[in-house]
Amino acid sequence: MIITTEETQHAPMIEALLDTAFGPERHTKTAYRLREGVDPIPELCLVALDHDEHGNETLEGTIRYWPVVIGNGTPALLLGPIAVSERWQGGGLGSKLIRMTLNKAAMAGHRIVLLVGDAPYYARFGFSRQLTLGLQLPGPVDLDRFLGLELVPGAMDGVTGMVGRGPVSDRAAEVPLPSPTDRRAESRIWLARPA
Ligand SMILES: CC(C)(COP(=O)(O)OP(=O)(O)OC[C@H]1O[C@@H](n2cnc3c(N)ncnc32)[C@H](O)[C@@H]1OP(=O)(O)O)[C@@H](O)C(=O)NCCC(=O)NCCS
Prior knowledge:
Order of helices and strands: EHHEEEHEHEEEE
Number of strands: 9
Number of domains: 1
Largest sheet: 9 strands, mixed
Number of helices: 4
Helix content: 10-25%
Strand content: 25-35%
Low-confidence stretches: 172-185
Bound molecules: coenzyme A
């Protein structure tokens, strides 16, 4: 298993994994409104790669982050989507992807992370609904699933308002994939392959 930076050629496998995890209707969700026309943050977009019995590369996990802006200008990250293949679910891969990227984000100076997801899962990484009580999203969402995390203590003090898209890309919204210049594997990790 290798966890490395996402590259353009991973896109079809990522879309297939996200379709399996969330269904093709995922594009109608409010979180996707915040991603339209915006490039993800390349260094925080990771993939977990393995090989099948024929030696072909398989994609077992994906995590992406988008830039957003809160209120009148507080920058934040929007975590997601994240998905792990059914084969690897429950083996710690999702946690590893989240912890690795949150560490990278903190090291890079990011201060706030938002997401829409299952609170019972994300609470273990420090996400809470309490931090987003003063924020709004530009569309319908189950508010119990709207969570925040401070990478710097107090980063959300006094931060309120509507969450909006980050800088809009010059590129077509349909192909927002990064082409990282650093193609080295970020990390080679050992996780027991499921039977
Ligand atoms: C959610 C997901 C990314 C987690 O990745 P993973 O590699 O399976 O998770 P990990 O192995 O790191 O963690 C497993 C733990 O998370 C719990 N967990 C997994 N998904 C959960 C969820 N949606 N809600 C609450 N807990 C969850 C498991 O019960 C397990 O708990 P334990 O540690 O007490 O045994 C993955 O299961 C996935 O892609 N699921 C399909 C998409 C999905 O349902 N997303 C919903 C989250 S927004």
